[in-house]
Amino acid sequence: MKTAWWPAFTWSLAKTMSYVGLTGGHIFQGECLPQYMWSLRLSPRTPMPGVYLCGACTHPGGSVIAMNGRNAAMAVLEDV
User: Fold this and answer.
1) 3-class SS at 58?
2) Fewer CB atoms < 10 Å away: N or C end of the chain?
């Protein structure tokens, strides 16, 4: 019988901040709690024409699903 094994590692918050370059910031640009998530995040549109946001601070929040970038791209397409 074969066994599955893959290497895994964990980093402390200090190691992550050092590696990613965060200096006291939040990797998700806000807490991952219901009162700070989903539609309560920032919109990709800003009051400045031609400036759009697509980071983890925007809806739907920080993760690796690319929805933040898609939402910003859709806002750009709607505005042009």
Assistant:
1) strand
2) N
